[in-house]
Structures
1.
Amino acid sequence: MKTHEMHPLFPSGEWEGFYSYYPGDKHLMQCSFTFCNALITGRGNDDIGSFSWKGVYNTAVLSCSMTKFYSSHTVFYTGEVDENGIWGNWDIDGIWRGGFHLWPKTKQENQHAQKVEIETLLQQPLIQVLK
């Protein structure tokens, strides 16, 4: 039994990023993930409060689905994984939705490029962001 995922795009540890309701909107997140045997677990904080993560990931198709559990509600996340982290959409009961981007904190060499990409992403219309 593995202790952590060995795929370089799924590193266990500290991650950071944001979620958005609409372009130009950015809500920062700090969290930790453990990727092991195709399962994701973790904890974190954002402007809503503390939360935990549970989900699944697939190294063959570079995707993941996660649920973010707050004490008051849950949020469903689906994303694609690449060298810049996890990108995708979040949804609450089909009523509220938006985009997100998370990346490992250890990727110091990509931070400037990620900040430029984030600003570009936030300037696009929501329809393009959610595709």
Note: The CA atoms of residues 57 and 86 lie 11 Å apart.
2.
Amino acid sequence: MFGKTKAFSGYSVDDVKKAKQFYQDILGLEVATEGEYMLTLKIAGGNNVLLYGKPNHTPATFTVLNFPVPDAEAAVDQLIAKGITFLQYGGDIQTDKKGIHRGDEGPTVAWFTDPAGNILSVVEAS
């Protein structure tokens, strides 16, 4: 039934203007405004993401958007230079001082949040 549809994902933010500034100016994404309460993130490959304003927004407690990068540490350094703070995890998902998880299993990954508190990541693509 949906095998040939071009699906897209979306999630809420509490402030559409702050979200636009963050995704466009900090992360460098092309952002299209869809009225007063929605944004479309133009992701390479055509897999756009819809962001919508929600007055009673609650941040996601899981990663909502992953950015594959060739070098996670370089991406983390660039984002830190732009004022991004990376999340720190302990336990099974240990992160180093920069917030980078370098596990024996799985990719090198680092998590950060958008202004609405939604969790995003940079993932080292091999």
Note: The longest strand covers residues 63-69.
3.
Amino acid sequence: MSAVRSKICGITCIEDALAAVDAGADAIGLVFYPKSPRFVTVEQAQAIVAALPPFVSTVGLFVNAERADLQALLDVVPLDLIQFHGDESPEQCEGYNRPYIKALRVQAGDDIAASCDAYANACGILLDTYVAGIPGGTGETFDWALIPKHLSKPLILAGGLTSANVSQAIAQVYPYAVDVSGGVEKSKGLKDHDKIRAFMSAVHGA
């Protein structure tokens, strides 16, 4: 199995972004959902992206954003990928001239394979925990046994991951990548650099 990729999401400052990169993260996530405690402004995002070294992917997370607003942000923040984390249809994810990831919030009874197939042009599918009224960042895991063995898209596993459980998650699910936010924080929106290093060490050792 090839190395599992990793994204540290909910980055709000340059120091946390560089700590993630130094620990070996492949990507950082910037949240452009105003209701999130991890929300970043355009100015914050521009400063963070400008500070990153080469070969680190920048991912912008959006929740049911208006097309004009999202496009305007893409015009001024050089993001590599879009992460749609709301109720966006496949059609609503198209037309931005960027590769995209679609997040699905998992609960028992979902046909994950069919949902994955519906987003035919996505470059990956992120599976997160379903909690009513909360698009993401819940800090809660879901039952990984619900994930089908073979999906049509690369699988990014999220939802309640920490340094204590990510090795088990990788061994059980065999994801393409793992995504963490709350599991490496000291408070919402601020990362704990020791937790980032511990998480990445567990990923690399899995």
Note: Residues 5-205 form a domain with the TIM Barrel fold (CATH 3.20.20.70).
